[in-house]
Specification:
Order of helices and strands: EHHEHEHEHEHEEEEEHEEEEEEEEH
CATH class of the largest domain: Alpha Beta
CATH superfamily of the largest domain: Probable inorganic polyphosphate/atp-NAD kinase, domain 1
CATH topology of the largest domain: Rossmann fold
CATH architecture of the largest domain: 3-Layer(aba) Sandwich
Number of domains: 2
Strand order of the largest sheet: 12-13-11-10-9-15-16
Radius of gyration: 21 Å
Structural class: alpha+beta
Length: 343
């Protein structure tokens, strides 16, 4: 930990704008709203005593515009990196922030943005603020609180209380393997699709799904992950994941109706299901398909002789528990002020 803690900010200008605004009823987080959120994050960081912030630059100037209005007492510096308007920008920014010794990275985006960050952030903890479509990994948390929590953790003020709940915990991840070689990761779900091409990437029709691997069973999930708690309510919030096979309406024993996208309820015919434990390796059908990671098709799988599998890895990115961080900061006296003494 340096004398002057460094916090990184990765605000994805493209999050919250995909095709599910047209085919479903997803919320739109425009860049002006992201500026408002980042402004509050900066003020929270300032209040927590952070002095240095380094961030992913973007063409809209989200962080710069946020700082211009808030005027926090922070040394703000953009990462010196090329920006091409692709998810790889977030991956590259996370790697550079980790190399710079960032104590925490604050992200603004959905599951896809955080997946890109998790590829390269190493052990740097994340405070993930939801501004995407399917937001199972990030949280709908007020920006000021996100900034406070990030600052308290980065500065070392929020210390793990003995016997208390974890301030920073490990989230699971899913590692996609072809012929046992890792090719990519997901944080929430890996889905094989009957779609032959990547196209618009997002998935929202159960008839296009084949097999699903989930990293968690979460009752209040939106998207494909919502199948988990509908099928395994007894395992909600446990450490288990799940494998699910989607069948045809004619042959499947039963269906479950879930929010497959914001405002879009769909019945999914279930051909098979089972819980999986951390560390498990799940073999998937090796028929040609596209593979979606956290709700978006990313990989075209064409070789039926190749072996396709997913490993349920419990050692994914580290995540800050905002409530526990602020509680620990309060216990450490971070919010106390000394009374003024009369002369």
């Amino acid at each position: 930990m340096t004398a002057e803690p460094l916090v990184g900010i990765i605000a994805n200008p493209a999050s919250g704008k995909d095709i599910r605004r047209l085919v479903a009823h997803g919320s739109t987080f425009d860049n002006n709203e992201k500026i408002n959120i980042v402004r509050r994050v900066l003020l929270g960081l300032d209040a927590a005593g952070v002095e240095r912030v380094t961030y992913l630059p973007d063409g809209y100037g989200i962080v710069e515009r946020a700082a211009a209005a808030a005027k926090p007492r922070l040394a703000l510096k953009p990462l010196a990196m090329p920006v091409i308007g692709h998810a790889s920008d977030s991956t590259e920014a996370a790697a550079r922030l980790a190399d710079l010794g960032a104590g925490v990275i604050v992200t603004l985006g959905g599951d896809g943005t955080n997946r890109a960050v998790a590829k390269s952030c190493g052990d740097v903890p994340l405070v993930a603020v939801s501004t995407g479509t399917n937001n199972v990994f990030p949280r709908m948390i007020e920006g000021t609180l996100a900034g406070l929590a990030a600052g308290l953790v980065a500065s070392g003020i929020a210390q793990q209380p003995e016997g208390g709940d974890h301030i920073v915990r490990r989230a699971p991840r899913l590692v996609v393997r072809i012929d046992d070689a890792p090719v990519d990761i997901a944080l929430i779900d890996v889905v094989t699709s009957t779609h032959a091409w990547l196209g618009a990437r997002a998935l929202w029709e159960p008839g296009h799904l084949r097999e699903i691997v989930l990293s968690r069973i979460t009752p209040a999930a939106i998207g494909i992950a919502s199948l988990g708690s509908a099928l395994f309510p007894e395992a909600s919030e446990s450490h288990a994941g799940a494998w699910i096979a989607i069948g045809s309406e004619a042959d499947a024993p039963f269906s479950v109706t879930v929010p497959i996208a914001p405002g879009l309820m769909r019945a999914a015919p279930i051909a098979g299901k089972r819980l999986i434990e951390p560390g498990a390796n799940v073999t998937l059908q090796s028929e040609p398909c596209t593979i979606a990671l956290d709700g978006e098709r990313e990989i075209e799988f064409r070789d039926p002789s190749a072996h396709l599998s997913v490993t349920f890895d419990p050692h994914g990115p580290r995540v800050v528990d905002v409530e526990q961080a602020i509680r620990a900061g309060a216990l450490a006296g971070a919010f106390r002020t000394s009374p003024a003494h009369a002369s």
